[in-house]
Design a protein that fits this description.
Blueprint: H1 6-11, E1 39-45, E2 48-53, E3 58-62, H2 63-66, E4 94-96, H3 97-102, H4 104-117, E5 119-123, H5 131-137, E6 151-153, E7 169-172, E8 184-192, E9 199-203, H6 204-214, H7 216-224, E10 227-232, E11 237-242, E12 245-247, E13 253-256, H8 270-287, E14 293-296, E15 303-307, E16 311-315, E17 324-331, H9 333-358, H10 372-385, H11 390-398, H12 405-408, H13 421-429, H14 435-454, H15 464-472, H16 479-486, H17 491-503, H18 514-524
Parallel strand pairs: 4-5
Antiparallel strand pairs: 1-2, 2-3, 5-15, 6-17, 7-16, 8-15, 8-17, 9-14, 9-16, 10-11, 12-13
């Protein structure tokens, strides 16, 4: 880390003056930085690098961040799992629709499989019209095309696409004539009782890698030759000129467009056309190798999600008089990737919270008969048993996170100094939760002072430790303070949390663990 590019480092300053802390967007232009910018001084402490710049600005960077290696957007072969059919001899990536909806970890696993392997199958999706749109809506947005927001894959009397017939269809990608091409496709099976009609998938990135290994010059030809992909019918005229194999500036495979039916007429010198067709035929032959083709049958209620710029999909012929009906739609990988990133971010946050409950949470809680974690879990369980709204269950569960010293750097309340743990905890939780959760946390100490002022007998029910902390935290409110508190938008929720807080001090109460609350917390995170 001795050599650091000054402009790179300053361009990545994470401070509030340089970046919007909500979304990370930069608040300055690169031309705002002065000529000759230099590091005037640098020091390392507490896991960070502090930099004083020649223009007087100060920055702090986590050492862990500085040591990270360069990554990518996850769209090239470098971030994929190449496969052949044998890799799925024990089964394809799949999940039940019910589990996918209920469990964020299951949803992340399905979306992660689409990102890494290019596809996944959801089982038991209700076999009703337009349900495929609901599946797409769980991770992104439907891409509307000339086929509409959805399309029916079945035998049509006057088809404008071979997909709407009963003939076999060779491995291909959809819509290569579109710019940008839809990067995801979903196919939901409503009926598949006709003999035949099995589905097939080929990993186009794997096929391209095979071509590169076996015939590197042919691979190079297909990456540099723009191919006119064309589609036309009575209402549509589409064209996109793109290579069959798209690579990024580093030469890594990023996209495959392969559709024999849609290739228009190439123009050029005969020797270039000869080279292209030799490479094209070799690549096409590779995509037809049996070891590369994964075949399976979609049954009623199955929904296949796959990467349309990586996987080639195919179909065996089926009896025209039989019943086979799929509904499909298009979506885009960026939305799926975004949803997966948010799920991963939520999982990391929940893991951090779980670690606090399992670690520091095992410590004593202000002299009570329960640990800190037991107290908070009891409060969450009491809120849940009372039928409270999810945001209140979360607030009750998390109300005392400000007591976790290692994470939040609080001070010991029992030493007679108010550590303002409600404010500290609320600020810490704002990274993940909205005010419906954080405000009851922030106000739960004030709610105790309020209840002691306005509710006869409430103070007498306080435990010895709670009575002590009441005095440290300012004692009961005055009449004016109580009236002001009651007028706050979150006062009622804070009072509810406070009551569960006081009740949650029973030894051996048998409350559920933190994992029980993970789905609820995940659903509330932003």
């Amino acid at each position: 880390m001795s050599q650091l590019s000054p402009y790179w480092l300053r361009d990545n300053c994470p401070c509030a003056e340089c970046r919007d802390q909500r979304n990370g967007q930069k608040l300055f232009q690169i031309t705002d930085l002065p000529d000759g910018l230099a590091i005037a001084a640098r020091t390392e402490s507490d896991g960070g690098l502090e930099v004083l710049w020649s223009d007087g600005h100060r920055s702090r960077y986590p050492l862990e961040w500085l040591e990270q290696q360069g990554g990518g957007d996850g769209r090239t072969e470098a971030d994929k799992r190449p496969w052949t059919a044998a890799d799925f001899r024990h089964g394809v990536p799949e999940a039940s629709w019910e589990a996918y909806l209920a469990d964020p970890a299951e949803r992340a696993a399905v979306l992660g499989a689409v990102r890494r392997s290019g596809f996944a199958v959801l089982r038991g999706v209700p076999a009703v019209e337009r349900q495929v749109l609901a599946v797409a809506g769980t991770f992104g947005y439907v891409r509307v095309t000339n086929y509409g927001e959805l399309f029916d894959v079945r035998v049509e009397p006057d088809p404008n696409n071979l997909a709407f017939t009963s003939v076999a269809i060779a491995p291909h990608t959809d819509n290569p004539y579109r710019d940008p091409v839809p990067t995801l496709q979903l196919l939901h099976c409503l009926d598949n009782s006709a003999p035949g009609g099995d589905s097939g998938l080929v990993d186009g990135f794997k096929a391209a890698a095979v071509l590169r290994a076996e015939a590197p010059e042919d691979f190079a030809v297909l990456t540099r030759t723009p191919v006119p992909f064309v589609f036309r019918d009575r209402a549509t005229e589409l064209r996109a000129d793109r290579p069959l194999i798209g690579v990024d500036p580093l030469g890594r495979i990023r996209e495959v467009r392969f559709n024999n039916r849609s290739i228009g007429t190439l123009r050029g010198p005969a020797e270039e056309l000869d080279a292209f067709y030799a490479a094209y035929r070799r690549f096409a032959a590779i995509t037809l190798r049996p070891e590369l083709r994964l075949e399976f049958r979609l049954d009623r209620g199955d929904c296949l999600i796959f990467d349309n710029v990586r996987l080639l999909h195919a179909r065996t012929a089926f009896e025209q008089d039989g019943s086979r009906h799929l509904q499909g739609c298009y979506a885009d990988l960026d939305s799926l990737t975004s949803t997966l990133a948010v799920l991963d971010r939520q999982a990391a946050a929940l893991d951090e919270l779980a670690g606090l409950f399992a670690g520091e949470g095992a410590g004593e809680y202000l002299g009570e008969a329960v640990t800190m974690a037991e107290h908070m879990l009891q409060a969450g369980a009491l809120a849940e048993a009372a039928g409270a709204a999810p945001h209140l269950v979360a607030a009750a569960l998390l109300h005392d996170v400000g007591h976790f010293q290692g994470a939040l750097h609080g001070r010991d309340l029992m030493l007679g100094q108010d550590n303002r743990h409600s404010d500290t905890g609320a600020r810490w939780l704002e990274r993940w939760f909205g005010p419906e959760v954080t405000e009851p946390v922030r106000l739960h100490v004030a709610a105790k002072r309020y209840l002691c002022a306005v509710e006869p007998g409430y103070r007498a029910k306080l435990s010895e430790a709670s009575e002590y902390t009441l005095r440290v935290q300012g004692g009961p409110m005055s009449a004016e303070q109580a009236a002001a508190f009651a007028a706050l938008p979150g006062a009622a929720d804070a009072v509810a949390v406070r009551r569960w807080d006081e009740q949650a001090k029973e030894a051996d109460a048998g409350t559920p663990g933190f994992e029980h609350f993970r789905p609820l917390l995940a659903a509330l995170m932003r």
